[in-house]
Amino acid sequence: MSKRIAFAPLAAAIGLGFSLLAGCLVAPASAHAEGEIRIAEQFGIVYLLLNVVRDQQLIEKYGKQEGIEIKVDWTQLSGGAAVNDALLSGSIDIAGAGVGPLLTVWDRTRGKQNVKAVASLGNFPYYLLCNNPNVKTIADFTEQDRIAVPAVGVSVQSRFLQYAAAKQWGDKDFNRLDKYTLAVPHPDATAALIAGGTELTGHFSNPPFQDQALQNPNVHVVLNSYDVLGPNSPTVLFATEKFRDENPKTYKAFVEALTEAAEFAQKDRGAAVDTYLRVTKAKIDRATLLKIIDNPQIEFTVSPKNTYPLAEFLYRVGAIKNKPASWEDYFFQDAKPLQGS
Questions:
Q1: Residue 339: helix, strand or coil by DSSP?
Q2: How many CB atoms are located within 10 Å of the residue 332 CB?
Q3: How far is it, in rounded angstroms, from Cα 308 to Cα 15?
Q4: What is the pTM (predicted TM-score) of this model?
Q5: Domain coverage including residue 294
Q6: What are phi and psi of 223, to 5 degrees?
Q7: pLDDT at 283
Q8: What are the protein's UniProt keywords (predicted)?
Q9: Could you tell me the CATH number of the domain that includes residue 175?
Q10: What is the mean pLDDT of residues 98-105?
Q11: What share of the chain is helix, strand, coil (3-state, %, to 5)?
């Protein structure tokens, strides 16, 4: 019989930083006036641009240029479902999550709250990892395996897995592997995968967690998201049309801050690493982290790349009801329009 996983103590024991507020603990809030912004991020280097924005107080900087003092509130959640719930309940203004959760909430709110993406957080390969030596491809997973994802069926990792399953077995079986997935935050899933001896044998991860896990010789890559979709922007920031329209100065300050953060991180990755370590207090060696983000497949940019194939796929298999004509349907186009795909 497989062992159950005591996730949080295990993560703490091997030095993986973990701070989590469950979606139900984010108290609903009423609409607020211009000059306040509440941002929800998740875990990993994919959120580094937000770390830079926070560390350098860039939203506050650009707010002053607009003539307002901006109060910024930061929240950390795990999983697209929790993030979407927080956004729709009015608990946050800017949601950080994968393209999968974005497309779900865009589809759900079309003609109502009209949630759309503000920007990408960059291009990153995500790895499906496994510590079961018998699993070489996704076709090798069995009832004995469990795969950790941030949110079952909704997270971008879940959607990548479904996309890969559809390529393997056809669209009708796109959700064939969903029954093997569990919702587990990245730090805990990483700890469980490294430790072994539990029911969790797989983890669709992101950097730096996937790189930390791969330091264990028992862990190997089963699937690289770039091999499925090509280089792409897996994680984005999104907001409601109401927040954007009613807080134009605050929204503009946020966009300008994010753009400066992307330029900073792309130009000086050493300084970006220092920022990540300072803000997240992650227990990871600086040289190791720098090696991770020096990967030429990683790019820090606010312009989305190659998101539309996933949108087309989700419509094709019935996961979303509305088919976007292009990526521009689910991204806001501001004064400086994004150049994406």
A1: coil
A2: 19
A3: 37
A4: 0.85
A5: 23-123+233-305+321-330
A6: -150, 135
A7: 84
A8: Signal
A9: 3.40.190.10
A10: 93
A11: 45, 15, 40
